[in-house]
Amino acid sequence: PRRFPIGEPHHITMVFGASLDEWRHLVGRQFQVTVTAEAWNEKIQALQVALPDWVPCQNAHPHISVSWAEGVTPVASNAMMEGVHKSRPMMALILCRESTMLLDFSAFLRR
After folding, report:
1. Among 31, 76, 37, which residue's Cα sits nearest to residue 57?
2. For residue range 41-78, what is the model confidence (pLDDT) as tens digits?
3. 49 and 11 Cβ atoms separated by less than 8 Å
4. Got the DSSP string for 31-42?
5. Rounded CA gap, 106 and 90, in Å?
6. Better-predicted residue by pLDDT, 81 or 105
7. In what order do the strands lie in the sheet with 86-96?
8. CA geometry: angle at 18 spanning 2 and 34, to 5°?
């Protein structure tokens, strides 16, 4: 269940500021991720995930932001995962499609 009132858990941030050419091989691919833990602090909640070995990820702690407090943005989950937080083990499988992965191509699309 959500720990905070705001949130839309819909993606795994794998890289920010990516070049489309570097990640084109993932377009249209599906894969399964394993949820290994729920993590949270006083501001945000996330699910820690394990990706298949062949899926590149530049995020030190792959996760899905689940919910957050008023005035907090989902990017705060990165700092939470790096810092002090509570956690509990979990085990779940999620099927990821292209739309589930957030590969920020905004710099590419502005060209």
Report:
1. 31
2. 999 999 999 999 988 888 899 999 999 999 999 999 99
3. no
4. EEEEEEEEEE-S
5. 33
6. 81
7. 63-68, 44-50, 31-40, 86-96
8. 40
- pTM score above 0.85: no
Quote the pLDDT of residue 89: 96
As given in the structure block, the two tokens for residue 30 are 């599906």
Q: Kindly tell me the number of DSSP H helices and DSSP E strands found in the chain.
A: 3, 6
14 versus 110: which is more confidently predicted?
A: 14
Under 8 Å between Cβ of 34 and 77? no
Which phi and psi (to 5°) does residue 78 adopt?
A: -60, -45
Burial 59-68 (b: 16+ CB within 10 A, else e): beebbbbbbb
Distance CA 66, CA 53 (A): 24
Distance separating alpha carbons of residues 103 and 57, to the nearest angstrom: 10
Residue position matching structure tokens 């833990």:
37
